[in-house]
Amino acid sequence: MTIERIEMALLKLPYVHFFETSFSRDYDRTFIIARVYEDGVCGYGEIVAEEAPLYSGETTEGAWHVLKTFLIPMIFAGKITEPEEYAVQAKRFRGNQMARGGLELALWDLKAKKAGVPLAKLYGGVRDEIEAGVSCGIEDSLADLVARVDTFIGQGYRRIKLKIKHGWDVDACAAVREKFPDVLLQVDANGAYSLADKEQLKKLDPFNLLLIEQPFAPYDLWDHAKLQREMKTPLCLDESIISFDTARAALEMGSCRIINIKVGRVGGAVEMRKIHDYCEARDVPVWCGGMLESGIGRAHNLHIATLPDFKYPNDLSASRRYYTEDLIDPFIELSGPGTIRVPDGPGIGVHPVEARIAKASLRKEIFK
Ligand code: OSB
Ligand code: MG
C-alpha cells in the first residue's frame, strides 16, 4: 500500500471571542489541515503552527514550506504509510515539530480508520471520557474576566485556567478566587516573566493553584528549576517541552513537577508517547494542552488524553467555546459536568465537513 495523494489547506477561522495571552490578542486562527489518502480512505491532521512566531518559532507559512519541500516528498519517495516509520524519517529534519507532528497525526487517523478502530484504542487509551478544562484569556477588565469564568462554570466546566502577564496576575487570581473559592484553578504566563520577578510569582502561592504554567522563556530550564525550589505550587512546562529529551532534562533538573503535552509542540504522537511513558514511570502527571485547534485537531487531542498518565484536567473544551462554525460534525460538547466523551468511531471519530473546510480555506494544494 502507498499514499496516493496528500492535500494541504490553509484555513482561517474566526474565534467566538478574542483570545489574549501575554504575547498577543487574536480574533481568528490561521492553521493548516493535512489530508492523506490511501485506498480511498482519508486521514486528517491539523498543523497547529500559528501565523506569527510568538508562541513558538514556527509559523503557518514556514510549516507549509517544510511540508511541501521536505516532509511530503519524503513520504512519496520512501513509500511511507506507517506513522511510526514516518516519525523516524521525519526526525532527520531539525525543529519544525508542528509541521512534522501534524502530518504524522494524519497518518495515525488513516491507520486507525483502516483498522476500523478509534485512535484511542490504537494508542492504548484507558478511558472513554476525558476531563475538560477551559483556558481564559486576558480580558479588558477583571469584571469581564469574572463574568466569563462565571459563564464557563455555568456551562459545566470545573477547571479554569487564567492567562497571566505583568499587571494581570495576583489581582486576576484574587478576583476569581473571591467569587469561586473552590474551583480548580491554574495560571499560564506563556513565558512573560524572568527570575527577576521571583518575588511577584511567589505571591501566587496562597491561591491554591493546581499549577503555574511556563512562567519563564522556553529555553530557560535552569531558572525554572531555581523558581520551583522556592515555590509550593507545582510548576508545569509547556513551551519548554519540545521533545522527549527536553522533558527528561526538565524533570532531572527539577524545572517542573507536571508536564503539559501538546502533540504538535513535541513533533507527533510517537514523541508524545515517549514523554508520556517516561512521566508515568516517574509518577509525574501530564495533561493535554491545546492550541485552540479546530475540531479536527481537538478530536486528535481527545484520543491522546485517554492515555493513563493524563491525570490533570486538559485544555480541551467544547466546539462552541472556540468557533461558531467548527469544522466537524457532530460538534464536541461537554458530556457531563467537566467531561467530554471521546468519539468512538474509527480514527478521530468525527466527520470533517468538507464544505466548511472549503469555506474557511485561503489556499489549497494537492500532491501526488
Ligand atoms: O499556552 O496553552 C497555551 C492557545 C494558544 C497558544 C498557547 C496556549 C493556548 C491555550 C489554549 O491556552 C488552550 C485551548 O486550546 O483551549
Ligand atoms: Mg501554555
What would you note in describing this structure?
With 368 residues, the protein is an alpha/beta fold. It has helices at residues 60-78, 83-90, 97-115, 119-123, 142-155, 170-179, 198-202, 221-230, 244-253, 269-281, 295-304, 319-322, 354-360; strands at residues 5-20, 25-38, 41-47, 129-131, 134-136, 159-163, 184-188, 212-213, 235-237, 258-261, 286-288, 328-329, 339-341, 351-352, 361-367. The protein has a 7-stranded parallel sheet with strand order 5-6-7-8-9-10-11. A 4-stranded antiparallel sheet has the order 3-2-1-15, sandwiched between helices. Helix 1 (60-78) crosses helix 3, helix 2 runs antiparallel to helix 3 and helix 5 (142-155) packs across helix 6 (170-179). The model has no long low-confidence stretch (mean pLDDT 98). It binds 2-succinylbenzoate and magnesium ion. The site of 2-succinylbenzoate has 11 residues, from loops.
Using only C-alpha atoms, the radius of gyration works out to: 20 Å
Bound molecules: 2-succinylbenzoate, magnesium ion
Helical stretch count? Answer: 13
- Distance N terminus to C terminus? 14 Å
| Strand order, sheet with most strands | 5-6-7-8-9-10-11
As a percent range, the share of helical residues equals: 25-40%
In one word, what is the shape? globular
Beta fraction: 15-25%
Q: Name the helix and strand elements from N-terminus to C-terminus, one letter apiece.
A: EEEHHHHEEHEHEHEHEHEHEHHEEEHE
In short:
This protein is an alpha/beta fold and 368 residues long. Helices cover 36% and strands 21% of the residues. It has 13 helices and 15 strands.
